[in-house]
């Protein structure tokens, strides 16, 4: 039987729930509301990959300025600038272009490159240039705000996932979802992401913690080529990043 190669996530407690890690070369949607830990989880995945497995990573920031991301991640002891200097991590800045101001970053997208086809080419060229093995887009809704029609962002998502698979990148795509109301069961912003990706991980914040001090939960909605844990898992954001609290495995 052909074994699926696994990519360690760098998130303590997660690999045990998904047969050792993400399937190599697949795309994973990480969805959640405000403050649930999406960006931390994605950046932890890239940083641990660079530090522990010598896998360079590419991070696309659409909503937050790169310098603020570097500053925020220092609280976990993660020196992103040092990894950038070593060629183990690169940040492609789309945030400045999104609001129409010049970017001070080494890697950025100009306004004329924000068209879907040109943006895809830019991303793929940069991934190849740094030898990226891991990829994060943060986030899909933020990118969608810059495109005129939802049909454009849906087409972009379909093509992006296709190209990511073709290049062998193991990727995280971030999306915001509602936390309350009748749309609570939505797993993406545009209603197509969860169908084209290979995995869906949902993060939620709850006022009724599963365990003392754990107000966040993680739920694996889907993971192709993987027998995964199907329950809710308590999640904590610590001084060293995200970790999952132990659960009784039934996989």
Plain-language structure description:
With 251 residues, the chain is of the alpha/beta class. Strand 9 (216-223) and strand 10 form a beta hairpin. 41% of the residues are buried. The strands form two sheets. It has a nine-stranded mixed sheet, sandwiched between helices. The radius of gyration is 17 Å and the shape is globular. Helices cover 30% and strands 23% of the residues. It has a domain at 27-200: P-loop containing nucleotide triphosphate hydrolases (Rossmann fold). It is built from eight helices and eleven strands.
- Beta-strand content bin: 15-25%
User: First CA to last CA: what distance?
Assistant: 19 Å
Oligomer: single chain
Q: Please tell me how large the radius of gyration is.
A: 17 Å
Order of helices and strands: EEEHEHHEHHEHHEHEEEE
Strand order in space, largest sheet: 5-4-6-7-3-8-9-10-11
Q: What is the general shape?
A: globular
Structural class: alpha/beta
Concise summary:
The chain has 251 residues and is an alpha/beta fold.
List the helices and strands and how they pair.
Blueprint: E1 6-7, E2 22-23, E3 27-32, H1 38-53, E4 57-61, H2 66-73, H3 80-85, E5 89-93, H4 95-99, H5 116-129, E6 134-138, H6 140-144, H7 150-166, E7 170-176, H8 193-196, E8 199-205, E9 216-223, E10 232-238, E11 241-244
Parallel strand pairs: 3-7, 3-8, 4-5, 4-6, 6-7
Antiparallel strand pairs: 1-2, 8-9, 9-10, 10-11
Provide the descriptors you would attach to this structure in a database record:
Rossmann fold; globular; 30% helix; 8 helices; alpha/beta; 9-stranded mixed sheet; 251 residues; single chain; two-stranded antiparallel ribbon; 11 strands
